[in-house]
Amino acid sequence: MIYTITTGQLEKGTGKQQAAFIQIFGAENAQYRFDLYFHWYNIAHEYGHCLCDFYGSDIIGLKQELLVNRFAVSLWKYAGQDETLDQLQKMLDEILQKMQTPVPEHMSFTDFYEQIWGTEQMMEVPIYGYLQFKSVHDALRGNAGLAPTLREMGIPDVPADIDCIRHGDIVDILPRKYAVCSQTATKALHDLQCLLHDLGIEQPTTAVKLVDDPAIHCVEIS
Fold this sequence. Notes:
- The chain is built from nine helices and three strands.
- It has helices at residues 15-25, 30-54, 61-78, 82-98, 109-116, 125-141, 146-152, 167-173, 185-198, and strands at 2-8, 205-211, 217-221.
- The chain has one domain.
C-alpha cells in the first residue's frame, strides 16, 4: 500500500483561485503564508491521516481530523520548530479575526461539526475553512505531548520518555535548512519520517505529489 499526499500550488492556480486565497491569507506575503500552511504544516497533518490508516485507527471523522492536528503540532514541536509554529499561530490569529464563525451560539464547535460531518453543508468553503483554521489554532494553543498523541493514533510501543527531551537537544536533531515553499514539501515529509524512524516507529511508503489546483490537499491510497 502506497500513500500519496497530494497538494496544490498557489503559483499554478488560476487568477480567480489565487485571488480567493489572497483574500484568506492577506495580500502581504500571501505566497509564503500559503506555503507555510499547506506545504509545511499540512504535510504533517496529512501524514497523520496516513499513519492512522496504516495502523488501522478506529478514530475517524471529525475526531481524526482533530487528532492529526495534535499530531502535526506535537511532532513539529518535537522537531524544535517552535519559531515557525509561532509564525503559523500569529497568521491564524489574523485569519480567524476576519472570519465569521458558522457555529451557532447555542452549540459547541465539536457538536456543530459532528452534526454536519459528511453532509453537503460541510463542504461549503467558509464552513470547511473555519473548521481547518480553528482546529489547527486550537492545537497550537494546546499542549498535547507527542507520545500520548502517537498512542492515541494506534501506534504501539511508543517510547514513554520522548516528551522529556531537552529543547536544546531537539534543535540539534532537526534544524530546518530549507525555505518553506511547494518545492520543499517533500523535504518536510522526509524530516518527519526521519524523526519517527529514529523513534523506532514503522511507517508506510509515502510520497508528495504537487498539482496545479491550489484547492486540492488530500491523501490518496493505492
